[in-house]
Amino acid sequence: MSARAEALDAAAIASLDRTLHEPARLGVVACLYVVDEADFVFLQSQTGITGGNLSSHLKRLAAEGYVQVRKEFEGSKPRTVLALTEAGRSRFESYLAALDGMLAALRPK
Q: Which domain of life is it from (predicted)?
């Protein structure tokens, strides 16, 4: 086994945040990471996730403390506004650092 393969062990992969590692949730959190807040329609257009699936993923992210959900009205029209919590932002940064470490271990020296 090469030194690079040894550097990327199964424990590192297993330790990745499973909530974030799911592609749809990763896309949602990545999108929210670069904005202060976003409404449901914007997230749906940016991620390409159907409304029902997005709603399901947002419920999971909110339940795990990654996302804050605010319901409001714009005139008489309901609007759902989402933002990363401080914990969500920190967990995303940790996730990125873990991925970066794994990728660095695989890169030729």
A: Bacteria
What CA dihedral angle connects 88, 56, 70 and 34, to 10 degrees?
A: 40
Question: Judging by beta carbons within 10 Å of its beta carbon (0-12, 13-18, 19+), is residue 106 exposed, middle or buried?
Answer: exposed
Domain span at residue 24 reads 3-104
SS3 content of the chain, % helix, strand, coil (to 5): 60, 15, 20
Helix (H, G, I), strand (E, B) or coil at 44: helix
**Is residue 57 one of the residues assigned to a domain?**
yes
Positions in the chain whose pLDDT score sits under 70: 1-9
pTM: 0.86
